[in-house]
Amino acid sequence: MLLMTFPGKAMAQQSSIQQWDDRIMIDLASHRTPKKTGFYMFMSNSYKYGEIGIPAGMFIGGVISNDQQLRQNALYVASSTAITIGATALIKLIVKRPRPFIKNIKIIPVYEASYYSFPSGHTSSTMATATAVSIAYPKWYVIAPSFLWAGTVGYSRSYLGVHYPTDVGAGALLGAGTAVSMSFMKKP
Question: Which residue range or ranges hold the Phosphatidic acid phosphatase type 2/haloperoxidase domain (predicted)?
């Protein structure tokens, strides 16, 4: 009998999580302004420059200054981000969660993203980059801007109507977890 009631509880719990996701998405959309939307579009698009530019800049700086530690840490940051991107793509194909605006017509996106929603790829990759850089260089002036950037990119995905908050949360956990698990690569 316990096995028969458990799926019902799981469905009710999933339904309440989905309802929570929907409420937040509708609330975010109702409070959009052109100025905020422009800012969050800019931040959302910054992911590709940060996840490529940060390790590339580190590597170039390491080559120019002949700093082996900087080059090795660039490899660590790039590897953490790349593995996170691959894991995110695989999870998206397995889970196949529809985008918020496909599942609920009350959710109006700023633009229509393609593919699947869970987890947020922008969030997972920026969080991997931010976590790896912060582990490699644990100084407040590295950690604070790194996580401010990654957190803002993550928030932008829900604000723009293309990811549920749970997609963003899962992406953040995936990215941070990957960077932590790859920390053996960093050069002390």
Answer: 74-183
Distance between CA 139 and CA 158 in Å, rounded? 29
pLDDT higher than 80, residue 154: yes
d(CA 139, CA 103): 42
Tally of structural domains, the chain: 1
Q: CATH number, domain at 67?
A: 1.20.144.10
CA–CA separation, 46 vs 9, rounded Å?
40
CA Rg, the chain, in Å? 18
Per-residue pLDDT for 10 more than 50?
Answer: no
Domain that holds residue 38: 2-185
* Contact present, 162 and 111 (Cβ < 8 Å): yes
The three-class DSSP label of residue 133 is helix
